[in-house]
């Protein structure tokens, strides 16, 4: 039986230094008389507008089921006081500890608390659990990371992700909007200008730390798995950039932990695509009821690891539903997974007598156009991987024979290569593809690797030019059914633009041996677990004044050899009918590179964001550009703020960061 609830749009939470944070709170109407546990989501993304639509579906539902659901704007964000400094900073951690202590001490709270969040909120839930504040008993972490260097939006396999600068551009825009005068009163302008004046140059910071160092170790719970004692439910999706985290947490935590991986993108599982969606809130409620209310809900008996085993489908960049079935493992890693080694031959995979080597992965700046986004979450069209044949044609490929029986791949395939390069700085991208009978090449999973990290990711070691070395690394976790008659392909390239930023000089890799180790599970006969249909609270009442527009174009100038990827999107003015705030945004990204010249890689990004109500109108415009030469990354950003039509602030950021 659900309970009547009350909402407080702005609850003030004091911090020890005198700063006040703003929280939106939902709780049962009788919580003062019958205290309840609390569920905290601690984010920088503006509860008033940024996450309002999502919050309206999630938090009231938890409140109706007997919890105080608390969505807090972090310091310097949304309607909270203070100044923002960086992702997952020590200030953020201490603030959140103070918020947890304050919530636990309230008369409407039992003193027990859980943290929930996707992405940033999933990160800091784990990070706070590692700091062990006494009230924090459980965490539900979605699409998050336990390793800020290996599994975040900045670097992957030691390679600089294109999304590193994309995220720096997005953050500069998102965090530049003004607080709402209806919440903070007449001081809104002073708060806004102070924030703008103190905006951190994060694009520079994130490019400065190119290898695993203390900056990334801070907030990476993989540094000490034993530090987490709270119960952890970890959830993610195969079409999300953070998909490896679920396996890592389930494999390494000593605390109670369960993992669920669906076919989803970077969204909550009851809102995500590709489907099927699940009743995620009901699953989270089972977790809360067990660890915050000591009720027997059976979660301890759930499988350690549950995954959506995806069927083979033709590549579709806008796929809405992914056929498949749920498979489960009672323990993870599972003793039922067979490590099947498949040696590489000359253009072949799993040949009985590998043909003589070597095979050449020639340099090409065009490889990577079919990869889709590292981070699919609805910012533009064409986010999922396309047909891989275009990228395959520019890669060194090793093809297997048609498989004699259906093969279920569950886990992280591992690639081992004997390789020599003609440059001391080199990267490899390795893709595992499904060669389908219809002629298409579908991406199963992939991985990238900085060859200078072959002896460790803290102290890079240059490749000895022309000398053969042995390297090995894991591809991303996956659950994929390869049907009888399909073939596997390993495709190797020395660039993968714009997924990773290229080395300054073209690289040729000479491959003289290797093997793919494939994690093969006994063939599933059907669903091994079922989830309820999604439930949620009613949608936020909104009115859009126009249509959302999205576009993605890839164009090549045959005269200059330049290829340009242009991604654009517009969200029309959208009114929150509960308080009248109207927001809109527009973005454009232009990625360019010239054939045969990786040093020509360049990206320009623009964001425009408006927030207003009646005569009160504010707008920010940000521009970001990144390019590089052999020695440096060059970063330029500009931030402009407008009140009405009048520019009230502008600031330029510019620096060059040495390529290490």
TrEMBL record:
Q: Where is the composition biased (Basic and acidic residues)?
A: 542-554
Q: Which organism is it from?
A: Pseudoroseicyclus aestuarii
Q: What is this protein called?
A: Xaa-Pro dipeptidyl-peptidase C-terminal domain-containing protein
Q: Where is the signal peptide?
A: none
The record's section on InterPro entries has: AB_hydrolase_fold (IPR029058), CocE/Ser_esterase (IPR005674), Galactose-bd-like_sf (IPR008979), Xaa-Pro-like_dom (IPR000383), Xaa-Pro_dipept_C (IPR013736), Xaa-Pro_dipeptidyl-ppase/CocE (IPR050585)
Keyword tags: Hydrolase
SUPFAM superfamilies per the record? alpha/beta-Hydrolases (SSF53474), Galactose-binding domain-like (SSF49785)
GO terms of molecular function: dipeptidyl-peptidase activity
Give start and end of each Xaa-Pro dipeptidyl-peptidase C-terminal domain. Answer: 285-539
Pfam families named in the record: Peptidase_S15 (PF02129), PepX_C (PF08530)
Q: Where is this region: Disordered?
A: 525-554
């Amino acid at each position: 039986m659900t309970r009547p609830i009350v909402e407080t749009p702005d609850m003030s939470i004091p911090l020890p230094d005198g700063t006040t944070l703003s929280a939106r709170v939902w709780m049962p109407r009788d919580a003062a008389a019958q205290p309840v546990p609390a569920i905290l989501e601690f984010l920088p993304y503006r509860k008033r507008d940024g996450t309002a639509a999502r919050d309206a579906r999630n938090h009231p539902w938890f409140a109706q089921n007997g919890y105080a659901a608390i969505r807090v704007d972090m310091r310097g964000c949304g309607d909270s006081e203070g100044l923002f400094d960086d992702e997952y900073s020590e200030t953020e951690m201490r603030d959140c500890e103070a918020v947890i202590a304050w919530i636990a001490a309230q008369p409407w709270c039992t003193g027990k608390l859980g943290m929930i969040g996707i992405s940033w909120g999933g990160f800091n839930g784990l990070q706070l659990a590692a700091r062990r504040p006494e009230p924090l008993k459980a965490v539900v972490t979605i699409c998050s990371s336990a390793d800020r260097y290996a599994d975040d939006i900045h670097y992957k396999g030691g390679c600089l992700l294109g999304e590193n600068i994309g995220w720096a551009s997005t953050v500069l825009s998102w965090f530049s909007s003004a607080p709402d005068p209806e919440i903070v009163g007449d001081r809104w302008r002073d708060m806004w200008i102070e924030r703008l004046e103190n905006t951190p140059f994060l694009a520079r910071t994130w490019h400065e730390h190119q290898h695993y160092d203390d900056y990334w170790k801070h907030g990476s719970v993989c540094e000490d798995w034993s530090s987490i004692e709270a119960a952890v439910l970890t959830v993610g999706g195969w079409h999300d950039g953070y998909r490896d985290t679920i396996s890592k947490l389930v494999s390494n935590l000593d605390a109670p932990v369960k993992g669920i991986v669906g076919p989803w993108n970077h969204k909550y599982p009851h809102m995500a695509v590709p489907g099927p969606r699940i009743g995620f809130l009901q699953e989270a409620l089972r977790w809360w009821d067990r660890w915050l209310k000591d009720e027997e809900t059976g979660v301890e008996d759930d499988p350690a690891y549950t995954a959506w085993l995806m069927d083979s489908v033709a590549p579709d960049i806008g796929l809405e539903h992914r056929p498949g079935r749920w498979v489960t493992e009672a323990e993870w890693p599972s003793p039922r997974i067979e490590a099947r080694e498949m040696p590489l031959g000359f253009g072949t995979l799993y040949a009985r007598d590998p043909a003589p080597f070597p095979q050449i992965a020639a340099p090409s700046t065009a490889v990577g156009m079919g990869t889709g986004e590292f981070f699919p979450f609805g910012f533009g069209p064409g986010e999922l991987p396309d047909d891989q044949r275009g990228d395959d044609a520019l890669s060194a490929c090793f093809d297997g024979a048609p498989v004699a029986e259906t093969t279920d791949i569950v886990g992280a395939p591992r690639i081992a290569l004997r390789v020599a390069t003609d440059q001391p700085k080199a990267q490899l991208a390795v893709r595992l593809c499904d060669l389908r009978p219809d002629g298409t090449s579908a991406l199963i999973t992939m991985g990238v690797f900085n060859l200078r990290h072959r002896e460790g990711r803290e102290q890079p070691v240059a490749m000895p030019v022309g000398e053969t070395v042995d390297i090995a690394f894991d591809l991303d976790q996956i659950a994929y059914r390869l049907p009888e008659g399909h073939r596997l392909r390993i495709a190797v390239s020395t660039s993968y633009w714009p997924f990773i930023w290229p080395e300054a000089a073209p690289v040729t890799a000479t491959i003289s041996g290797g093997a793919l180790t494939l994690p093969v599970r006994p063939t599933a006969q059907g669903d091994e677990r079922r989830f309820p249909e999604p439930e949620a609270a009613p949608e936020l009442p909104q009115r859009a004044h126009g249509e959302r527009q999205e576009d993605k174009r890839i164009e090549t100038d045959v005269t200059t050899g330049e290829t340009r990827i242009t991604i654009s999107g517009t969200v029309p003015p959208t009114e929150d009918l509960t308080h009248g705030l109207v927001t809109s945004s527009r973005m454009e990204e232009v990625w360019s590179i010239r054939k045969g010249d990786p040093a020509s890689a360049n990206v320009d990004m623009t964001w425009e964001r408006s927030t207003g109500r009646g005569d009160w109108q504010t707008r920010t415009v940000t521009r970001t550009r990144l390019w590089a030469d052999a020695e440096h990354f060059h970063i330029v950003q500009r931030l402009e703020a407008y009140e009405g039509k009048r520019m009230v602030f502008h600031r330029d950021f510019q620096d060059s960061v040495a390529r290490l």
